[in-house]
Amino acid sequence: MIIIDDKYISDEVIEEQFVCNLSACKGACCVAGDCGAPLDKSEVKTLKKIYPQIKSYLREEGIQEIARTGTNTIDDEYGYVTPIVNKGICAYATIDDHGMVGCGIEKAYKDGVVDFRKPISCHLYPIRIKKYESFEAVNYDRWDVCKPACKNGKTLQVPVYRFLKDALIRKYGTEFYEVLDQIARKEHK
């Protein structure tokens, strides 16, 4: 385990390898599961605020679900989460002509429509963060739908934390990432 400030990082974050392979999984992480993506309190407010700008990027089913439930729902385990359609696909998900699932929020971000990229839990996946009273546990989450990403990561020799560099910097800052990288490089010479 690696400890940086109040973050307890599982060794798997630096030992396991991972690079998304969307051509193999087709964005299954936005479809599979029993609840939507976990949201921070600030993200709940942000989604309400930006919804009018991102609505045109969403599928009709997603728009209808958000009209019915709101821009977020509550899950017993994760708290605030994105709504899901028919107990599966995220209400914010898009599907292109090739069946590839993407994020309507992220498409709006890339088009410069909003300055919010997507929920941090999505950006950080396969890392999941659990907050405790005095620390945060930063863990690698194994999920069958990500087997192609694990294989791809091994082929390319990219550790989870390096694949998620931008997301980790977004969440914890550059200094945190640089310390994590230094520790990882020392431990894996």
TrEMBL record:
Pfam families attached to this UniProt entry: DUF3109 (PF11307)
Q: Which InterPro entries match?
A: Rv0495c (IPR021458)
Would you say which domain of life the source belongs to?
Answer: Bacteria
Describe the family membership recorded for this protein in Swiss-Prot or TrEMBL.
Answer: Belongs to the Rv0495c family.
- State what protein this is by name: DUF3109 family protein
Query: Which source organism?
Result: Chitinophaga hostae
